[in-house]
Amino acid sequence: MTQQQRHGSQVFAALVALSFCITLFSKPANADGNERLQVPDDPDIQAALAAGNKIRIAGTGLHSDTYPGSEGTIEIMLNQGETVERVLLYWQGFTCYEGNATPEYDYSINVRKEGQAVATEYTTDRPIGEHVADDSGADVTPVRSFYNGYSAVMRYDLTDENLITQGNNVIHLSGLDDFRIRWNADDPVKCYGDDGRNGAGILLIYSDGSDSNVQLVDGHDAAWWQRGGSLGRTVPVRYDFTASNNDRYADLSMFISSVEGSQSGSDRPSVIAIKVGDDPADAIYDVDILQSNKGLEWDDYIKSVRIPAGVSYIEVEIESATMPAGDYSSNDDALPDPASFVWIASGLSTPQDSIEVCECRPKALTFRYVGGSCDASQHHQDDKFSCDGMVPNGSNIEVMAFSSRGKSGKAGKSETEMEILNASVNPGGYFTINATEKGRLPAQAEIKLVSGDYEQLLDIHVSCSVPLALGDQFGAVVLDSFVAGDQCGGGNKCKKHDHKHKQPKKPKGKSEKGKKGKKGKKPHDHKHEHKHKHEHGPKKQGGKK
Q1: 454-497 residue pLDDT tens
Q2: Which residues form the signal peptide (predicted)?
Q3: Shared-domain flag, residues 333 and 368
Q4: Secondary structure of residue 83 in the 3-state scheme
């Protein structure tokens, strides 16, 4: 079947009504998302953005050195009280072959929900973005990019297929066999690499009754430090929203492909730079966090971004760079060769003005798993909170909880004092800790997150003698909601709180490797300014691109 790509301008009215907008910098707008991300022009997606509150993503790498390739599997949850507004499927790849003077892309993808015997093929009629000759829009002729191949991003609207229903949805994705960059005699020019299939992902726009606003941009924006023009860097995306009197937290979700893997290579530095308002001290730099966290050649990026009181915008850019900056080379192994990549989609959910703070010890806490190191913590607990270890970004986790005596690693009573709902959690998913004794949680709770050989231990003070605010981030999880204990005399004993965020004290003597001692390539969450120095040099022999 063919998906009709519809055009319209209704999004502007919706954006004005919701008092937010997205701004793209440096390059004039194109009709398509060619070397930029832009607001989708489909009126159904625009209506979903106006009606929805949140975004949830789940992707998978599809890179393989065999044809046909194997399936990639994603899991995406629809919780009780959430309503689907739109289900968007994205995929990206490279192709070498040029037929009839146009690139031979793969416009079809196979989708099979767990329990279905046969996959269904879905076909779109055009890319939503390509690498083109002139990024200003004057010449939209596709030209070769990485691996000497053509590059494109596709999108298909799966909403009417009813694949995403209440509960956990397991979806298998396959196909894309026409995305190939391995040279053969039929190709008019030689490409290099072993596979053009980078991956695919589902982006869910949903409503949950909250007062959050949601924004989305998508397209094709590739970058590599060694190239000039539209391939030299990405176009920053700016999200504007109404300023608040309080600190709050926005949820940022992105798809990125072809950063690191068996084809693109290892040790591929990158920086996700998030400018939060005009104060450089509030900026966030996620360094080397893109490492094919959803399988070879695909990354899901989920981030809870603190929005200080008075701030009315954030600006996001993905950079082919290191931090701190230095000399780069693609033929000298002693120097870093920052990553090339394709930025596919970026969505932001921003809550309205109020922040709820618990003032009576709760009997239930619900957390959202967003990923992040101990350094990503943003909370109001000062030294009442401690964090140790890490779980790899984008990995699934198992959750355990114990009462604590106040120091991470020194558990008190066993986990029988608490129970975990949804103990197996995917990125972007939720879990709840419920009290099983006395109608309230212990004063100090230790939460253990486990992913394979990695562990992160979070020791959180939950008696409310220090603030416990919705949106607080503790390592890899964010507090989403709470229920007051039986002793609180009815109601949630919460108030709308005008408070300014306190930077957490960095844990002393804490390691960023997991408790079981397994070391991995460590991403960093930096909070300071940086500059880049780009040194151009000849390509490394056998290098990526």
Answers
A1: 999 999 998 878 888 888 889 999 998 888 887 776 544 444 44
A2: 1-31
A3: no
A4: strand
